[in-house]
Write a structure and sequence with these properties.
There is one protein chain. This protein is mainly α and about 200 residues long. The chain is about 70% helix and about 0% strand. α1 packs parallel to α10, α4 packs antiparallel against α10 and α6 packs across α10. The protein is globular. The N terminus is likely disordered.
Length: about 200
């Protein structure tokens, strides 16, 4: 999708505007709404973790190998998810098929924007899960993130702005971000279906 926004607009603002609708859908998606209400039970929480694991298993190979995104990528998040699932004695979902966010490294930057930006909301979810875990961090370490996440997010944002020297590159970032959110919604929907089967 072409944005035709031109280089004067910041990359972050263009990405935010292009993904507003999906952000709003995810805020009211059943698992996240129930967490905010303190109503998601442990079985449904495990199903959510499995969905998120499936998503990260698809995006991390892209982010870890793309020369543009690899230096800024945080692959530790998959390990945190793995530990949470093991703590909760949950099995791992099937490996997802190979996935790509679009064409070229700037699409991968849009993917990185989504993945790294999610650490901000993750900290909110971590606190909302107190009703399930009390004071324990085990089983929700993924949402806690790491102490370096705020600095990494700032570095990603700065790099995004340095990388939009043409409208085409901005379009590729938007394409990558939208594709990444579409993948996440698909993983979430698949997890909900598996959990209700």
């Amino acid at each position: 999708m072409t944005t035709h926004l031109g280089s004067p607009q910041s990359a972050r603002e263009a990405l935010r505007l292009a993904t507003t609708d999906v952000h709003e859908r995810l805020h009211v998606a059943t698992p996240f709404r129930k967490i905010a209400e303190g109503a998601l039970d442990m079985g449904d929480y495990v199903a959510l973790l499995r969905s998120i694991f499936r998503f990260h298993a698809a995006v991390q190979p892209v982010l870890s190998t793309d020369p543009v995104t690899a230096p800024l990528n945080n692959s530790e998040r998959v390990e945190q998810l793995r530990k949470d699932l093991l703590t909760l004695c949950a099995d791992f979902p099937a490996t997802p098929p190979e996935w790509t966010p679009g064409h070229g490294g700037h699409a991968a930057l849009g993917c990185l924007y989504v993945v790294q930006g999610s650490t901000i909301g993750g900290r909110v979810i971590y606190r909302q899960l107190d009703y399930l875990f009390g004071r324990s961090s085990e089983g929700r370490a993924f949402f806690a993130g790491s102490v370096n996440d705020p600095q990494r997010w700032m570095a990603v944002r700065a790099f995004l702005e340095q990388s939009i020297d043409s409208p085409d590159r901005l379009d590729r970032m938007v394409e990558g971000a939208q594709a990444t959110f579409t993948l996440f919604e698909s993983c979430l929907e698949q997890g909900l279906k598996e959990n209700s089967a």
